[in-house]
Every structure is written in structure tokens, then in C-alpha cells.
Amino acid sequence: MNEDVLVGVDIGSSRVKAAAYRRDGTLAAIADAPTPVVTHAEGDDFPVLEMLAAAAGAVRGLRLPPASIVGLAVTSMGEVGTVLADDGLRDVVFPSWYDGRGVDVVDHLELTWGARELRDRTGRHARLVSTVAKLGSVPSVPAGTFVGVAGAFVWQLTGEAWQEASLAASSGVYDVVRRTYLDDVWASAGLAHVALPPVRRPGAWSPASTDLATELGLAPGAPVVIAGHDHPVASLGAGARPGEVVDSIGTGEAVIAVVRPDLAADPDHLPSLLDLDPYLSVEMWPSTGEQLVVWERMRPGLAMRTFLDRADLDRTTLDATAPAPRAPRRVDEEVSLALEAGRAVDLAYDATAWGELTDYYVLLAQRGELLVRRVTGADGATVLTGGGLRSPRWRAAKAELATTGVDVSTVTETATRGCAAMVGVASGWWEQAEAMPGTGRVHVRPGAVDAMDRAAQVLGG
């Protein structure tokens, strides 16, 4: 390959991916590696320095010529990070977002500052799945400046430490309206000795300048961007725009939409929308910083993992032998939450129950979409994306149980593509991130399983 490319890096909870894109938006190369995880009695830990090594390894795996990367951007899960001290990044082993560590920290913060006050100021991010909860539960956190895992990788390439707004929100101590940190809240979690990084505007970048950047193939001075939190960045990469609703299905299924500007300008709107449902939270759209609503009730991948651990049949067989989609009978919220938490339930772990579990999440997503449309004013298409589309039974349920049509994004690597879209602006390839070429969609009417399958074939499913 002798052409200039943009590279997107996605540091996720199961895989670390890197992908290179040409100016026409086509995928030039892709590489990935498992996300390093340490499992023990309390749960899973993410060794951050090993994660960063995996990210660098994924970029090396693209096998690009020297100086051919003219821009690179990074997205990641939200809360995970480490501490930057005078002598470099410290070896923090970070608790996973999906275990219970940090609950005592959240209880303390809510008792000290008021649960509703924290909810309204942070957009419901002062919770168990937040940096302040997880890092506050780590014994002997070193002094320095906190950097998210995406920001830590950017520091390794540029020597500059900073943060992006949607990832700052996942700290649990970022005021999503005033766009400032709640430093006193952070300190009360026992983290006063750890500074918080400055938050820059959407699309801000630092120039590649380190030996690692050169070794990985970045051109001198190439823009390096923190694209943002993985779900919104993947929504951008899937080709979604403000006014549309994104349903991203996978380990966690998020329903996402940008808040209409007139609603976002109403100071009473944010508290009132958070009153409606305990799984609504507020972040920012990566390219513009507009207010964004995320509904995160569902973790179907975790529930399905628990189911498969107890089933005698493998996933392929369960998908193939499950009955046609229908309203679930034995799966309800109590069952789904138990499975998501890894707990066994009184359920026949057979093909019928597998189908009912899948159908439960499809119907739950429909409820979430209606709620998100109500609170954001979004009236555009529903864009369906995510790895769950590779499951034939999940696809069938999405089509058969649908009440309105959906647009299935045929972008194969949405998170890395969203990164490329962001850094493409900084590199001068296009004027706005949404203008990156290379997206595609298949419209699926209710009941049109064949159209859903055609879209999945493009995705390799």
C-alpha cells in the first residue's frame, strides 16, 4: 500500500481493533487483538498498559508503510483509564464496568451530594459504571493526572494529555450542561490527589510527535484525535445523523439520538427526561458536541453468555432450532437482569427459551426507541447496527416483531469508521464528519426477514 490513509482505533471490552481507510471511504486494512483481561474472584480487571500495547499492536498489524497514516483517531469504552505521572503512565489495573466494585463509592457520593443533584448535573453518569466509582474503589491510586484509555494512547503518540466531552461525561463528575468538572465530588471519592484532564472541543487534535507514532507509521505532525465514547462514535460511523435514532445491538444494546436543539436549550428538559426512566443518560454527539440521549437498559450479550454457559447446545444450533419469533412467555425483566449479572435462573436452557430471550430484547428495544424519540424529538429513520446482526435468530426477530421499517447500516466496522470520519475533518479530507463517503443502508419493512438477511450478508453474517 503506497497511499495515504486514515486510521481508526477502537479499544473495546472484548477486542481492540485498528482499521485504515482510503479517501473514498473504503476499508484498506484491518487488524485486531483480544482485549487483555485479568479474571479473579471479584470480577474482571483491565490492565491498562497491556491494553495500550494491544492498541499499538493492532496498528502495527495493519502493515502500513512509514508516514502513510495522515490522521489517527481513537474511541474506547468510557470509564477505563490510568494515571499520568511525571515519569509516565502508571500501571493501573482498572475494574471492569460490568462488575459490582464501586457501589460503596456511589452510595457515599449520593449521600454527600444528593442523588438527584448528581443525576441532573452529570446526566446520570455518577453511577456504578463510571470512572469515579471504579477508580475510587482501587486501593492506592497513584498521584498524577487521570487519562482515559483513549487519551492515554493519544498521549503516547503526541505527548499531550487531554479528554473529549463524551468520555469526560463517563467520569461521573462532569457537568454535561455547564461542561465543567465537579472537582469537589471527585475529591470526595478519595481522588483529590489525581487531577482531571482538560476537555477540548469536538474534533480537537494534537500532532503526532513521538517515536512510537513514527514507528507505527504516522506522518510527522499528523492529527491525532480522541473521537469519543464508543457507542456514539459507532453511531456516527454507521452513517447516522442528528434526527435519526440508532439501535446498536451487541454485548450491550444502546438506543441513541441527538436532542433537538430547541429541547436542549430548555433548562427544565434535562431533569424532566431523566425523571422518565432510570436507564436514560446524556452524553454528546462526537462531531458537534450536541446533547445526546442514550438508553442503556439492555445487555443482551451478557445475558446470552450466561445462557450459553448453561445450555447443552451451542449458539449456532440454538439459533437454527429456536421457534419463530413471538411474544416471550418465560423471560421477563427479572430473568433478563439475573442473566445479565451472570446468575442462573429457573429456566429451561433450550432452543425455545433461547428464542424467547432473543425476542424479549427485541421488544424491549422497541420500547426504548419510543422513549428516546419522545425525549429527543428525533423523527428520522431508525438505523440498526452492531454485531448482533450476525445472529440469524436475532435478525429474524428484529424483522418479524417490527412495527415500522428500519434502515440496516451495512458499515462493517462502525467504531473505527467513526474515528476515521472524525480525524478526516482534521486532515482536511472532508468538511464535516458526517460527509465521509462509504456508508450504505438496506431498508427493511416489518416482516421482511429476507431483506434483513441480505443486509447481514454485506456485513459478513
How is the topology of this model organized?
Layout: E1 5-11, E2 15-21, E3 27-34, E4 38-40, E5 43-47, H1 48-60, E6 69-76, E7 81-85, E8 88-89, E9 93-95, H2 103-113, H3 115-122, H4 131-136, E10 144-148, H5 149-158, H6 165-169, E11 174-175, E12 180-181, H7 183-191, E13 194-195, E14 205-207, H8 211-216, E15 223-229, H9 230-237, E16 245-248, E17 253-258, H10 261-264, H11 269-276, E18 280-284, E19 291-298, H12 300-310, H13 315-321, H14 333-340, H15 351-376, E20 382-385, H16 392-400, E21 406-409, H17 414-426, E22 441-444, H18 449-459
Parallel strand pairs: 1-6, 6-15, 10-13, 16-20, 20-21
Antiparallel strand pairs: 1-2, 2-3, 4-5, 5-9, 7-8, 7-10, 11-12, 14-15, 16-17, 17-19, 18-19, 21-22
Helix pairs in contact: 2-3, 9-17, 12-14, 13-15, 15-16, 16-18
Structural features, described:
The structure is a single chain. 38% of the residues lie in helices and 23% in strands. The protein has helices at residues 48-60, 103-113, 115-122, 131-136, 149-158, 165-169, 183-191, 211-216, 230-237, 261-264, 269-276, 300-310, 315-321, 333-340, 351-376, 392-400, 414-426, 449-459, and strands spanning 5-11, 15-21, 27-34, 38-40, 43-47, 69-76, 81-85, 88-89, 93-95, 144-148, 174-175, 180-181, 194-195, 205-207, 223-229, 245-248, 253-258, 280-284, 291-298, 382-385, 406-409, 441-444. Helix 16 (392-400) links the parallel strand 20 (382-385) and strand 21 (406-409). The chain has two domains: 5-230, ATPase, nucleotide binding domain (Nucleotidyltransferase, domain 5), CATH 3.30.420.40; 240-299 and 345-410 and 430-459, 2-Layer Sandwich (Nucleotidyltransferase, domain 5). It is of the alpha+beta class and 461 residues long. The strands form five sheets. It has a seven-stranded mixed β-sheet with strand order 18-19-17-16-20-21-22, sandwiched between helices. The protein has a six-stranded mixed β-sheet with strand order 3-2-1-6-15-14. The two termini are 28 Å apart.
